[in-house]
Structures
1.
Amino acid sequence: MKRNNYIVFTRTPWNEPPRARHQVAHALSKENKTVFIESNTFGFPKVEVVKKSENLLLVKSQWFYNYKIRYRIPGLNECFQLWLIMVLKWKGISNKDSILFNFDHTAHLIQYFIGSKQVYFCNDDHQRKRGNPLFKAYFHFTENKVIRNADLNVGTSKWLVEKLKMRNRQTVFLPLGAPTPIISPVFSKKGKYIKVLIIGFISEKRTPIEALLRILKVKCYQLTIIGRVDKVMSEKLKKYDNYTEKDTLIGVELERNINDSNVCLAIYNKKDVNKGGSPNKLWQYLAYGKPVIVSDLPSVLEMNFPKGVIHLLKNDKNICELIQEAYENDSKEWFNKRLLIAYNNSWNKNINKVIKHFNQ
């Protein structure tokens, strides 16, 4: 692969459970100089550059408004982008040979001024049916410019690809990929308890709490959540002795917890999932050979996994039945099959496909 300089622009903190943008940055930095620009925090305007590895730099910024406010407001968002563009060029972060991977559908000025080539990486549909009409109109304007001006658009589901192609024919399909493990995956030995794990930002809006409560009512199940949990939901879950809640973990600590689990969950309130949304955590679990119970989202159904690799949750009432099935059917043979599927769909391989598109 040709060696390049890459900039990954996001509206996401670095220190959170790995999402597609984090994993793309890690994959790019295997062989290339890569910069990850995280979401800005509130404070007097400044930019700090932190070295995370030999090829990976993290750009941390403060500005007058936190990103959660800033990116929604026309004019304010553009002022931040122009300021950041100026600082990045002054610090030598961006140059004429840089290639931008943009994960922010509002970053139309960043995409216009940064890098010689631009990739818009879209793994969600940002034009929700619900929400403030003014915000929706602004997001429609910015996303339209981002899609049309990109040298390449990447959609992570077939629905998203069709949406992107309506505005720019330079669009390709790239499924979410599996990360490369830092520590060796381990087949979990079966014991007295079934250790069930879920990673992410958990709230009653996003996650079916009834399914979690059903799990906790079975004494031989031990449920662990890693990540931020909504306060109201947390109080309901903490009433059970077989529930453990851990703060956000990344790196080796996160991987040790995945390794130690028996069954992993990627379950959602399907009404809250945007069209085209794909569960990135599914691939994170498969990278460690774990049996996964995942909601039957359209993007999951189109992946066409061999029967037995994952377990589809069609009705939240069946969660315990599926956990038992996944646990009892798991074996070293299935463990190795899942590892192979994850390896063949790794971020390293998928990102190479995007880079080759530029080098043709």
Note: The chain has 14 helices and 15 strands.
2.
Amino acid sequence: MHIIRYLATKIEKWDFLLTIGEKIAGKNSEELTDYLKKRFNISFAALLSTAFILSLLFGLISFLLLVRIGAYLAAVFSFFVIYVVFFSIKNSVTSIYTNEKIVHASLAPLVFYELSLSLEATDSVFEAIKSIAQSNYPIVSQKFRDILRKTSFGHSPEKLLFDYALTQPSNDFKTAVLAILSVGKQNTSNIEEYFREMENEYEKMTREIEMRILLIVTVSTFLPFLLTMTYTLWGYSWLIPTIPLVQIFLQKFPSKKILLPLSRDMKIEARTMINELEECAEFLETYSKFLELNYSPEKAIAETIKTVSKSVSRKMTLMVKDLFFNLTPLKVAWAKFIANFKHPYVIISLKTAAQIIEKDSKRSGEKISGISTKLREIVTLTRKRETLVATQRLKARIITIALTALLGFISAIIPVIAYSTMFIFNKSYSPIFNNLIMVMSLLATSVITAYANCKATMDPRMKSQILLTILIFLLTYNVTSLFQQLTY
């Protein structure tokens, strides 16, 4: 990585070398160039020029080493080396940009939900930044902690947050931060439209990743078939064990995750998450109504437990007991109540509600009512996301099963093709050895594809899907082989 950046900075000074990268990059790379300039002090064109030159160098070396074996094989392998080296160098840098963009797009609704609620509760940009810094958002929390450290040297938190926004790869993330800074504490409710925009952008990016994975899986479907047929027809059956290695190489390029979880430590079922959102929204909505009637915070809790559903009242039981029997302070009892929930939106909402509760119960009730309304909207968005994830997993499963059945069929008919073509090339064929290699290699290819697809879609049924893949492959292979024996 450091060597690539060093070479790219040197190429920046050579206009004729930089022109190569500009031609490859085209006109749609301004956003990526701005990011690389601010982050690594190199342009996208310089990165592409570096990748192109190094890939040509490695390709030439590969050709010279293999040309004695065969010019055709050397040319094909050298082109493959050029392709691999070029995209490996390019992706070593651009993957950072892509990863940060995906992280910001996936976490933006949650981050800015907390940011806007903190602004509404504390009327302080510094406290809002501190709230995000104390959370556990990948990449984002660390950046906000860096902003907090800089404020200790007298820098303005608003200015630091503004500078941070300008360097972000996600346009919606950037726009939302600037919007928060512009509306500030006077009109934080307007940020809701940015939540919707970011959610739409997140769903759009999710679909793009889905298409990329479908493309990779489609290639993985036909590439093993193409390689197997090529090796068999040309008498290079000893190369069949390389097919799983090629499959492993291909599976490294699709996005590692379609949907980043809201927290790396959060592993709860989607249905439980939605239930928690609905329970919290019900609690805050009911609690806010009693506060608006000028009930005290403690009295409002006593009335709320009588009105809410059984699932919510069970979680409130300990808080009521602490308040009225153990005489525990409201903040302490409220903190214990928060421990009943795991969903980050719920935790953020309840923590913010605890900050909002004041002596003026009616004013507090109005603010908490606004939080419950936002939670209801999040429930709707979460259900849409759940449907999207389920659709992606179903598509991945269907394609994996289709690939497995195809490879099982191919592994059974390849010996027939090999016998019919071995006289053309006048090469010997060892059916026991070659068949064993072929079947095990294509079975390994199917398992690798199933594992990669389950990992990409975060499928909780990975073990059962891999087992199903093995069974379908063996079943297809045995049925095809049996049918061949019956026809002869």
Note: The CA atoms of residues 241 and 441 lie 5 Å apart.
3.
Amino acid sequence: MEALKLTAKSSNNITSLNPKTNKTEYTQLNEAELLKLFPQSRYFQIHFQHLHDNADEIKAELAECKQISSQLNAKLDVLMQLFTQARF
């Protein structure tokens, strides 16, 4: 049995597209069934913790990139001075 593809939700109705017939089907759900379709609070807690951890890692990587960029700019300035002096 092939699962229906969920395409839209409105009030207590679920609209789905049956891949075999390519027709829209409607299913009436009670409140408990409807709540089961939504992620629980633990999902959001884990998700936001993951985002927070990633943000910290990205901030550290950005600081490192800025430091490397500043070092490269200093080296480039020295090379440009040496190049300018060598031309004259």
Note: The chain is about 60% helix and 20% strand.
4.
Amino acid sequence: MVLKRGRKTDWASNPKNGKYEEGLYETRYKSGKYKGRIKAYYYKDEQGRHKTCGGDFDKAVQKYTIYKREHNIVIVSPKVDMVKVTITEENSTNPDEFADGIITTLKNLSNGDIKISDLDITDEFWELAERIIKTNLTYAAKRLNIPELGYLHKVKPPAKSITLDELWSIYKSNYEGRSKKNINNNIKPYWNEFKKCVGKQSVRDIAFEDITKYNDKIRQDKEKSSVLNQYRYVKNRFDAVRGVIRRAKDKISFKDDCIELLTHMEQFTYIKKEQEEIMLLQRPNHVFSAEDLAILLKASNDDLLVKCSILLGLNCCIRWGDFAKITKGMLDFDKKEYRSWRGKNANSQACMLWNETIEALKQYMKANPTDTENVFLTSYKKVWNIQYLQEHFNKIRSKVKMEWLTQDKLRKMTATKSSQLGFGSNTNAYKALMGRKIPGADASYIYTMPADTEQVIKKLHKYYFG
């Protein structure tokens, strides 16, 4: 697609610097409250049909770039200052790379009058080009009959791009929407994983192949971890990385590099929730039995952290987030009680503890004493990151070949078994165990009591331990 010299009257312009985005169009509200404002950006496909890209300029550029790349469309401009020349400082001493740079430049500078296919690109041509280009670009333009070469002396090598570490520092110091704790716990692990996978320090050096490699890796990790019911496993990681880049790009002078990287990432699609649910229905339905629990507890004797997570998951319906934050004040071994509040909804949660659960907790606390209220801390006296807890659990799970089991399923197994034992979702025992609200007087809610769960806990214990 070669456009004639000049600009279309309705080509879109960047709202921040006024530069035109060639091939991308804009529409505006013609009347009403928003008269004159940008309504949407769009491009035209090869049949001339409008393809709407939405109202955000940066995202519209990304979608249009993906379309051009998929259809091998090159929109060229005679303006030298809009050309991305691939000539760098290294190319000036490497004839082959310099020749490649000239070819790319000619493609970008082409305006319909000069085409690469019309040039006789032979070995003799480049021998001549290499000799005269290094000495005098103006003379080279005349000698080779390529006027555009005369402009290249005005094009400076691109400045060194920002590194991934610098980009992270800018994001961390400028984004106040999250607490420092949330950034370190939720965003930083994904960012470090991305940085390690692409293996590049500079944003500009990250190519589409690197993003493909990253996508393949986290999809493989998803399969290994058997996170069957979390369709956002891959998307969460991509969103975290893209969030860092998006929020940092407006604070730096290398915005184009960041937009190019975001464009690479936009080309990947994720499994939708509905598709994943269909996949789940097609997988065999495993039932966690008393025999499975016995095998799992035996395998986890050498890892008391995992053993406690298994027993608390079944006994108290606790997931990783609440497990990592258990304090000594929540446990009463004398009364065999557990009381807490669910991190997900801040509802009161309580239950009676099995003797096996109490014994495992006592063994762990004796082997890993702490001088704080927290029961489960790392060797650095920090609260466990869920990702690392999952790694501990996965090792034991793989050891006994129960890849289908996740810690989250333990809570669901208890909920299912409770219903089968006659304690359905409408009973106070079920709500206390699962951390659901129990209606009380005056349409308010009352705190759940461990005693409410005594009967269901006894029946569950009999099922698992006989």
Note: Residues 11-70 form one domain.
